Amino acid sequence: MTAQLINGRDGFNKSDEESYRKALTLFEQALNKDPTLARAWSGIAAVWNYLADVYVRPLEGYPASRDAALKALAIDPRNVQALCYLAEANQILHWDMKGADAQFREAIKIDPNYGEAYLFLGISLIHQGERETGSAALRQAVKLDPLSASTRHFVSGQLTLAGMLDEALVEAKRTYELDPTYLYESSRLGQIYLAKGDLEEAIKLYEEGERRTRRPSAGLAIAYARIGRKADAEGKLEELLQKARQTYYRADQIATVYAALGQTEMALEWLERAYSEHSSSLFMIGVRSEFRPLRQDPRFVDLVKRIGLDPAKVFRD
Question: Considering only CA atoms, which of 91, 84, 92, 147 is closest in space to residue 119?
């Protein structure tokens, strides 16, 4: 493995845009030396996946990830990393969860020790309301890649959605132990304490996360709303709207704040924007507690169906 490949892989295990951009450059340098390096193409696919939705618009990042994955697979059809990132990109660009699940399982069949395949599959299953099978896949991802802060970060978020808050907290704390600098988008610990109802602790963690990322947090706005600090929640919402006017910010995240403030029409408007922008986190709407008040609205139910989810399964809690 070339030095560029090794250093590039280290880069996409971080959480900041600078590290991802550096990894992209290193993979491109490796390809300049040998354009047939399938692992460099699949590395590029991975980087664009992590850039998408947080640092670049989904319709910029996911097509780039898809195209790189296809180049990797043209060279090596058994490249499981490329297979997973191709599945992830197509899932988001075409709202095709079942097709993606089949490709994740195919990757596991090719290489049962590839942790990211279990991670992607577990995330998808959790979003579809399959909490037990999804959480089992997530635990297998951690077992196969126990020293990955990135894996534990995403696992803790999905366990939170599944209501497995104590286990989620263990994984989030382990993420910090492995890499104290890892902070992808916003505070995972803040999200867990918000779900637990410990609003003071959630606010403290979200505010710390904002200081580190210099990005406004929808979770902080929700915590303000739930604790009764409506003016602060509305002020934070305005920061989010300003961010969305200046650059990309997940529209479904803004929708969660409107839902927390009881503004159903605006929440639905921003969810439709997330659909048109192909936000990857839109797949969470069926199991996110923030959207429970919208579940009786036929427009929300229609949106859930349009992205390939079954309301009867995802609305069970």
Answer: 84
Angle between helices 149-161 and 131-144 (to 10 degrees): 170
Task: List, in order, residues 6 or more apart from 162 with CB less than 8 Å away.
Answer: 126, 131, 134, 135, 287
Within a domain: 135: no
Q: Which of residues 38, 62, 91 is at a domain's end? A: 91
Number of domains making up the chain: 2
Predicted confidence (pLDDT) per residue in 161-196, tens digit: 999 999 999 999 999 999 988 887 778 999 999 999
Task: Write down the pLDDT at residue 2.
Answer: 52
What backbone phi and psi angles, to 5 degrees, belong to 56?
-135, 165
- Residue recorded with tokens 């040998």: 34
> 286: domain range?
250-317
**Residue at token pair 């910090």:** 176
Q: Is 262 contained in some domain?
A: yes
Helix (H, G, I), strand (E, B) or coil at 97: helix
- Domain of 64, CATH number, reads 1.25.40.10
| Domain-embedded: residue 305 | yes
Say if pTM beats, i.e. exceeds, 0.90: yes
pLDDT of residue 8: 46
